[in-house]
TrEMBL record:
SUPFAM superfamilies: RING/U-box (SSF57850). One of its GO terms (biological process) is DNA repair. GO terms for molecular function: ubiquitin protein ligase activity; zinc ion binding. CDD domains: DRWD-C_FANCL, DRWD-N_FANCL. This is E3 ubiquitin-protein ligase FANCL-like Protein. Keywords: Metal-binding, Zinc, Zinc-finger. It comes from Tribolium castaneum. InterPro entries: Fancl, FANCL_C, FANCL_d2, FANCL_d3, FANCL_d3_sf, Znf_RING, Znf_RING/FYVE/PHD. PANTHER family: E3 UBIQUITIN-PROTEIN LIGASE FANCL (PTHR13206:SF0), UBIQUITIN LIGASE PROTEIN PHF9 FANCONI ANEMIA GROUP L PROTEIN (PTHR13206).
Length: 370
């Protein structure tokens, strides 16, 4: 009996044992597939033979099959139950009722929901709401019909990473998810306001289609120069992180000017005015419209003649003042790899495809030395 109890403890540690009136009661949980199942089994001796009776109801068909199974001990009996339940499709009738009731009560109670939708299989809920600035925000919620308690989980939320994590986890009701979502939106109103101002007043190169989760904007400054402005959503009035992209001579020139202005940033001032001040600009320049007859637009890769490759913009610029062409890392790496070039650690060195002056680029992530 000691060996049997030890085997039970090792294989089914969540099953407890109690001896009542000559019967042994087994209560607890076992793992069946991807979900836990509560069980109650009684072991007793009848005419000298040990029998096991399942007191938990899984439906007439399943319970009948379990009753007919032969088991030498409690571990064997539990094994038979787990195997049978794992092979049996889940009956989601009760889950369907619960989800539909929850969804109906949720949409009826929250009047600020612009629109909502639940999929025909009841496994996905989509909700759209509007914030104080009349901006639409979408929330998608997955439904796990196999879960007993916490069946709802937010997913595909377009918010800065820090706030996406705050909405992580599973929930037992839709109202709690939506309440947290509205709380996050309220906290992010200053951030959304600033990003809208930047989008409306600057020539934004990247992201091509900004979402509410993007905290950066790559802004066009000149034909060969741009700056990435990264804003802290937790402190939108703080000085943003700035990173220039362009020929080395232009980058150094603007960095020197920026360093002289950094301390002039005023957290209480208007964000765009403060940004103009430290960039030494009177207004934000707008990128000229592209002539359709031009083979390559400003800032596009000199090899593939496109601005984006796998959602990435060109980051390598030839250092030759008379060239200063742009290249995607992947494009330049493949070009240099196909000709006579040198690889030194995580850099590849060779000649510019356009002017044949020396140029180098880092290895793409999947080719880097670790």
């Amino acid at each position: 009996m000691i060996d049997g109890n030890l085997s039970l403890l090792i294989k089914y540690p969540l099953i407890s044992t109690k001896n009542r009136n000559g019967r042994i009661h087994y209560n607890g949980r076992v793992m069946c597939g991807s979900h836990d199942t509560d069980l109650h089994v009684i072991e007793e001796k009848i005419n000298g033979n040990v029998t096991f009776t399942l007191k938990t109801t899984f439906g007439p068909e399943i319970n009948e099959k379990i009753a007919k199974s032969e088991s030498q001990n409690i571990v064997d009996f539990l094994d038979n139950i787990v195997t049978l339940l794992a092979r049996t499709p889940q009956n989601h009738a009760n889950s369907y009722k619960r989800v539909l009731h929850e969804y109906f009560e949720f949409t009826r109670f929250h009047l600020n929901i612009r629109n909502s939708h639940i999929s025909s299989d009841l496994q996905l809920i989509k909700v759209t709401t509007v914030d104080e600035g009349r901006r639409e925000h979408r929330l998608e919620i997955s439904v796990d019909l196999d879960e007993v308690r916490d069946v709802f989980q937010p997913l595909n939320v377009e918010l800065p990473e820090h706030f996406v994590k705050a909405l992580g986890g599973k929930f037992s009701n839709l109202t709690e998810i939506y309440r947290r979502f509205l709380g996050v939106l309220e906290e992010l109103q200053p951030f959304f306001d600033v990003m809208d101002e930047v989008d409306g007043n600057c020539g934004v190169l990247d992201p091509e289609t900004p979402t509410r989760g993007h905290c950066h904007r790559r802004i066009w400054l000149d034909q060969n120069l741009s700056v990435i402005v990264t804003i802290d959503p937790l402190n939108v009035r703080a000085r943003p992180e700035l990173r220039f992209f362009g020929p080395e001579r232009l980058v150094h020139q603007h960095l020197d000017e920026l360093n002289e202005k950094l301390e002039e940033w005023n957290d209480r001032g208007d964000f765009l005015e403060e940004l103009l001040k430290i960039l030494s600009l009177e207004k934000f320049p707008q990128k000229p419209k592209t002539d359709r007859d031009v083979l390559m637009d400003v800032g596009e890769c000199c090899i593939c003649f496109s601005l984006r490759l796998d959602e990435k913009m060109p980051e390598i610029i030839c250092g030759n003042k008379s060239c200063e062409n742009f290249f995607h890392v992947q494009c330049l790496y493949e070009w240099l790899s196909s000709v006579n070039s040198k690889r030194i650690l995580n850099q590849i060195h060779g000649q510019c495809p356009n002017c044949e002056k020396e140029i180098s680029c880092p290895l793409p992530d999947d080719n880097a030395v670790t």
